[in-house]
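Long-time lurker. I teach an intro course on protein structure, and each term I like to show students one example going from raw sequence to a predicted 3D structure in token notation. This year I'd like something fresh instead of my usual example. Would anyone be willing to generate the tokens for the chain below so I can use it in lecture? Attribution to the forum is fine with me.
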Amino acid sequence: MEKLIRELKIKIIDLLNLTDLTPDDMDADGQLVGSELGIDSIDVLEMVIMIEKDYGIRIDNRELGIKVFSTLRTLADYIHENRRELSN
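-- Reply from a regular --
Happy to contribute to a lecture. Here you go:
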């Protein structure tokens, strides 16, 4: 799981052009959206597209998105759980 969290940190920094951050600056359990990271709803849309493209996982409603994008750990958990379901 930690490997996936690190991978997501790198992808999010690159995707959102957060040039002032390193993966070590991002707390896996800290608030993801609306935090000091400056991630807003447009950024979430970009992350949804990246997750669908890179992991084959859809986040197709607002309620699910709010839950999944709560923290990096909840995002990684969701990806991990749904990847496992897809491989069965």
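Some talking points for your students: The CA atoms of residues 6 and 58 lie 21 Å apart. The mean pLDDT is 91.
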